[in-house]
Design a protein that fits this description.
With 210 residues, the chain is an alpha/beta fold. It has a domain of 140 residues: Alpha-Beta Barrel (TIM Barrel). It is built from 8 helices and 9 strands. A 9-stranded parallel sheet has the order 5-4-3-2-1-9-8-7-6. Strand 4, helix 4 and strand 5 form a beta-alpha-beta unit. Helix 1 runs parallel beside helix 2. It is globular, with a radius of gyration of 16 Å. The two termini are 22 Å apart.
Length: 210
């Protein structure tokens, strides 16, 4: 399956997933249409999980999905994610070394920002995808105000306290996509529960204008 940019508007944040859960849970997310998978590095044996997710995507014929790591704090971690076959780097902060290393390796990088200063530093470092976190504190109005001073080609992802019911309001404020954590997956959740949440979120994003 070849993913389009619109399929990547939702990033599944699987904090706490174990390698044994990758096939049923990531497989279920892919079945529902998710084309961006983030496994935070503070999960159990995250690099093994990332490698398994990459292999699962390849077996499914996925050629353009984004699969990689969150909570990436160092350039060395970027290298380790790339060694696992990953192509997505998500950080909680703006680190020029992380951004430049990911770009040099041809990876998609999403640094975390909350202020105009942080956003513009990230953009100056080469990032074109920004994770606004925590989005629930900024609100659609706050993000709209910051969006006004950013280049048009920058994609904003709202992360933190945002669920399917919020997509329309944030999209109207200039948000392109969303990172979904606990509203999609909590450690111990069953495959059926994750699939149901994924299907609801995918249905909502497809009804939401970019």
């Amino acid at each position: 399956m070849t993913a389009t940019d619109s399929d990547k508007r939702l990033v599944a944040i699987l904090r706490g997933i174990t390698p044994e859960e990758v096939v049923p849970l990531v497989g279920g997310l892919m079945d529902c249409g998710f084309a961006a998978i983030e496994i935070p590095l503070n999960s159990p044996t995250p690099f093994e999980s990332i490698a398994r997710a990459v292999s699962l995507s390849a077996e499914d014929g996925g050629t353009d999905r984004l699969i990689g790591a969150g909570t990436v704090l160092t350039a060395d971690d970027v290298d380790r994610v790339r060694d696992c076959g990953g192509n997505l780097i998500v950080s909680p902060n703006v680190d020029r070394g992380v951004i430049s290393r990911a770009i040099a390796l041809g990876m998609r990088v999403m640094p975390g920002v909350m202020t105009p200063t942080e956003a513009l530093v990230a953009i100056d470092s080469g990032a074109r995808d920004l994770k606004f976190f925590p989005a629930s504190l900024l609100s659609p109005d706050g993000i709209r105000a910051i969006r006004a001073v950013l280049p048009d080609d920058v994609r904003i992802y709202a992360v933190g306290g945002v669920g399917a019911e919020d997509f329309a309001a944030y999209a109207a404020a200039g948000v392109y996509g969303f990172g979904l954590g606990s509203s999609l997956f909590r450690p111990g959740d069953s495959e059926d529960k994750v699939r149901a949440a994924a299907a609801a979120c995918m249905d909502a994003i497809r009804r939401t204008a970019p």
